[in-house]
Amino acid sequence: MTPRKIPLEEICFNLNTEPKTLHKKFPQLVRNIKEKNKSILNVTPIKRYYHKRDSNIVRKYLKEVIDSPEIVNYTKLAIELGIGSATLRRRFPEMIKEIQNKNKALFAKQKKSQDIKAYLEHYLQHDNYESVREISRILNCEISVLSNMFERLWEKVINKNKNISWKFSLPTETENSFEVNRMYSIIINYLRTTMDRPVYIAEIERNLGITRFKIHKYFPEIISYIKERNIEVIKNNKEKVGQRRRELMEAAIIKLSSQGIYPSVRKVKEEMRYEFGYKTELVNLWREKLIELGIEIARGFK
After folding, report:
1. What distance, in Å, lies between the first and last C-alpha atoms of the chain?
2. Per residue in 140-163, pLDDT tens?
3. Are 116 and 141 a contacting pair, CB within 8 Å?
4. Whether 19 contacts 9, CB under 8 Å
5. Which of 202, 217, 255, 292 is spaced 20 to 30 Å from 177 by Cα?
6. Residue 98 and residue 111: Cα distance in Å, rounded?
7. What pLDDT, on the 0 to 100 scale, is given for residue 172?
């Protein structure tokens, strides 16, 4: 592939830095890049396109554009090649489509990179705490990728989290009482919104960004409360499921009996459209309901 023009914006994007930083720290290199860009990729316009004579030239150039990590609009290509954009679309539809798809992918990647950068900068400007795992989950991006693509920002995030963790590892809590109370309120509010299901420390750590170390150190009473509450919630949920099973089974048995159909285990299960438990549990519950409703149990099921 022939040398290609590399815009300064692309270099900044790949290095995750600003143009003014490059100009300030590497002025001579920036000048050299600009001079090189002027000297390469000066395609001689094809004054008039002849399919047999010029197609190989155009195809080779379009292939270079497809392989390059640069967003290039096909109308710009038409101008550089001296060919009408309609001619390009008509003569090289597959290659133009490839260029458009590549442009979309690169644009999406750049947009995501900008969103990630904005999120990290916003996080650094505030006093809240989010674990690196939680940040990775929110951004839907691996920690290793964040570390490589946004090295300086990510280093600042790590340092911020270390400083916050260090504050809360001090022997006294007097200087941090406000933050401790804030975390306590967050955890309590979260528990109030999840009263119908069990909640575990790992879930609080993942969703609220409060480390289990802090929870164990500052809120041991909350840990005891969560354990007791989980036992009660699981017990209540089992009772609700059992009650729902009995209601569905009774309704199915009554409906089948009213239609003159013997409510066998299989028929009841089909009528309920509700899979639950093991066969012994199903049969025992079925037998109990038939006795309650005064229906004679068929031979072989007694």
Report:
1. 83
2. 878 877 887 788 888 888 888 777
3. yes
4. yes
5. 202
6. 20
7. 43
Give me the helix-helix angle, 93-124 and 74-81, nearest 10°.
Answer: 130
Q: What is the pLDDT of residues 203-254, one digit of tens each?
A: 888 888 788 888 888 888 888 888 888 898 888 888 888 788 778 888 888 8
Compute the CA torsion angle 278, 279, 281, 285 (nearest 10 deg).
140
Note every long-range contact of 182-190, with CB atoms under 8 Å and residues 24 or more positions apart, other chains counting: 183/210, 183/214, 183/218, 183/219, 184/218, 184/219, 184/222, 186/210, 187/215, 187/219, 187/222, 188/222
Spatial separation of the C-alpha atoms in residues 298 and 302, rounded to whole Å: 7
Residue for token pair 């979309």: 104
Q: Looking at residue 171, what is its pLDDT?
A: 39
Provide the H-helix boundaries in the chain.
8-15, 19-25, 27-39, 51-67, 74-81, 85-91, 93-124, 132-139, 143-149, 151-167, 177-192, 201-208, 212-218, 220-258, 265-272, 279-292
Residues of the chain with confidence (pLDDT) below 50 = 1-2, 44, 168-175, 278, 300-302
Extract the tokens encoding 69.
């990590």
Q: In this structure, what token pair is assigned to residue 48?
A: 């008039």
Please give the structure tokens belonging to residue 176: 């941090």
Q: Is 197 buried (19+), middle (13-18) or exposed (0-12) by CB count in 10 A?
A: exposed
